[in-house]
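Below is the record:
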Amino acid sequence: MTSIPTAQQQLDFIAKIQRLFAEGDFSATYKYALLIALTEIAVESDVQDGRELVVSNRLIADKFIELYWKQTTPYTSGLPETIPGVLAQNHGVQAAIVNAISEFRSTYSMGINTLNAAKAHEAYRSLQGKVATVVSAQPLNYLQNYGGATHAFIYARDKGQILLLPGVVYCLRAFQGLIQQLARARWVEYVKSHKDNRSIVGQAGDLESFMFETSRANLMILGKLLRKLDGHHCFYCGVVMQSTDVDHFIPFSAYPRDLGDNFVLAHASCNRSKSDNLASLTHLENWLERKQQKQDDLQSIASEAGFIFDSQASKSVAHWAYSSALNAQGSAWVRSQSYDLISPRYLTAIER
């Protein structure tokens, strides 16, 4: 096992990230997308110490396509002074990645209405290659430039891939929440302030939801399909439900990426009580068992409802979330007003 970064090295890393946001040149939204992509790749990897990690440009391109997929559709604020339109993502002509995804969606519109369907299409690899080329030429080339110089503190470049440097994966995992929050907030701010978006956005307050969150329509479809699979019992308390909420088992606030097998059905009261907390060991074990026993059904449901399905990624995210909580001496939600101190047993359950 490679030694984890020292406390000082971690502080140095996040200080450089903050300088990157303060002093870097953000003339397009690509750098924000790259920072989000790299944090997701780090969290979803199996690297839990100070090891390096090789990441292909195509994997980064996959993340970019996922991030920009919804943003290639027109945004409608509903405000009387605005008009629907695709959001501009840079200061020149429309961003090349947006154009590539839009062209793909237009060309294959008859058979593709979800990202899952796109990934299953024979032409997807070509789209992935186009996006990887842009990622290589632009954000990968310039992300680490700030203060008038290049500071290669995140990755080193190689043909068709990058190497996340020693300690970087650990730091990206440790500071995932801060980095993603900064990147998303700055991305939304950029889009709102772009002159070409003013007639589209107006004073709308739901722009972040449109850009980064799953639509309510998709969640409704998912809920109906999960009821057919899991029945009408609350995942947490087991009582029959008259109406249901779709809950993120690993809270969206902790890891804002919608993975198909991270959703469960719950009473509104259980959902509100659990809120942004991790769930207790019994709930975790039930979730892991459900993932294993119903994997094919969950994958089919995710595909139909328009969600990404990656069973290994969701398990890695769970391990990361509970590891972070364990290190912070955190507690897990059992039921309303009842919590359990998170112990190493939680990680053992995930690692089985």
The chain has two domains: 7-212, 216-351. The chain has 17 helices and nine strands. The longest helix spans residues 176-193.
